[in-house]
Specification:
The structure holds 2 protein chains of 2 kinds.
Chain A (H helix, E strand, L loop, with lengths): L2 H9 L3 H23 L2 H18 L9 H19 L22 H13 L2 H11 L5 H8 L3 H21 L7
Chain B lengths: L1 H16 L11 H10 L1 H18 L11 H7 L13 H19 L6 H19 L8 H6 L7
The chains are: A mainly alpha, B mainly alpha.
Chain lengths: 177, 153
């Protein structure tokens, strides 16, 4: 099955076809929601809520577009609404890596330090940095996904990286000191 | 003025480091390189940010294994909503009709129904914002971000 077929069947009330979409995109969506919200529990809630909203909105989906970028807008709105509602929420700094995967080039402690610095960023900065570096989205794709002009992406990325650098240095990340 | 120029050069240099075309930054690669060669502060800044870039480019996203279908399925309605149907659409149609009716009524000459009557549309609009839970005075995030460079450093 492909996405447009699944969406057509969902519109006709076939919930099993929606299962195909959920299972295809849930891992990616959870990763993106964690990158905005900074906690796994909130991310899970946001993704569930977003899939339910997306199901209800499927009749308005343009079948010429790709599903995930459209869904991402719903997910993103849901995450920021949740973040605003939990304004004083604390991002738990556990020993578990939530955003970054361990890689051979860095020791686990360094990856943990980097993840904590990423988690320390503002929600918007964290979202932008992870979409750019972990998903490899181009400036054009970022502008489309976030609904802002290219110039804004350019300056926001600069400030987000600057902020990340300061947090890394403050945490004593030796590769940058 | 000098600070703004440096900031603009740094932003452009990082966009080029990301593979963007120099034209997009509205300045030439030559001008950026020339500035970086002359300005030690910018050179250091850009070098450090390139190092952050290189570090982040090595990273991969943590794979996620959660399965959500069971809990999503329980909350799904029987069928998706019909096209263009929104739960608020009827309310907005009624509000629109009311405001048109109000305007027509207001146009009848020689009627002075007092200040309260004139305030009715404003009260309805305030009520609509309250219902939508939207703050019309909220500062736009994008504007806040654009102004941020003034406060950095």
């Amino acid at each position: 099955m492909d996405d447009p077929t699944a969406i057509r069947r969902c519109r006709a009330g076939d919930k099993e076809s929606f299962r195909y979409l959920v299972e295809r995109y849930e891992a990616e969506a959870i990763g993106h929601a964690i990158a905005i919200l900074g906690t796994r529990e909130d991310a899970r809630d946001a993704v569930q809520e977003s899939f339910i909203s997306a199901y209800q909105a499927l009749p308005r989906f343009d079948l010429n577009r790709r599903f995930y970028p459209w869904f991402y807008v719903i997910l993103r709105n849901c995450c920021y609404k949740m973040a605003a509602a939990r304004k004083n929420r604390e991002i738990s700094l556990s020993d578990e890596l939530m955003i970054l995967a361990p890689i051979a080039e860095l020791q686990r402690e360094e990856t943990m330090l980097l993840e904590r610095s990423v988690l320390d960023l503002k929600d918007e900065d964290r979202e932008l940095i992870t979409l750019r570096h972990l998903d490899g989205l181009s400036y054009e794709e970022l502008a489309e996904r976030l609904g802002v002009p290219l110039g804004t992406i350019m300056s926001r990325l600069y400030y987000a990286r600057k902020s990340l650098r300061e947090k890394l240095i403050r945490r004593g990340f030796t590769r940058l000191c | 003025m000098q600070k703004a120029t440096c900031e603009t050069i740094r932003i452009a240099a990082m966009a080029i480091a990301d593979g963007q075309r120099a034209e997009m930054t509205e300045m030439t690669s030559h001008r950026i390189e020339e500035h970086l060669a002359d300005c030690a502060t910018c050179r250091l800044e850009v070098d450090q940010l390139r190092a952050v870039n290189a570090l982040m480019n090595m990273q991969q996203r943590q794979p996620q294994n959660e399965r959500l279908w069971a809990s999503i399925e329980m909350s799904l309605p029987e069928a998706p909503m019909a096209k263009n149907e929104s739960p608020r659409s009827h309310l907005f149609k009624l509000l629109g009709l009311f405001l048109i009716g109000y305007k027509l009524f207001e146009m009848i000459p020689d009627r002075d129904l007092g200040l309260l009557f004139k305030l009715i549309p404003i009260l309805f609009i305030v009520a609509a914002f309250a219902y939508l839970k939207v703050n019309p005075f909220r500062i736009n995030t994008e504007l806040a971000l654009e102004g941020r460079e003034e406060f950095d450093d």
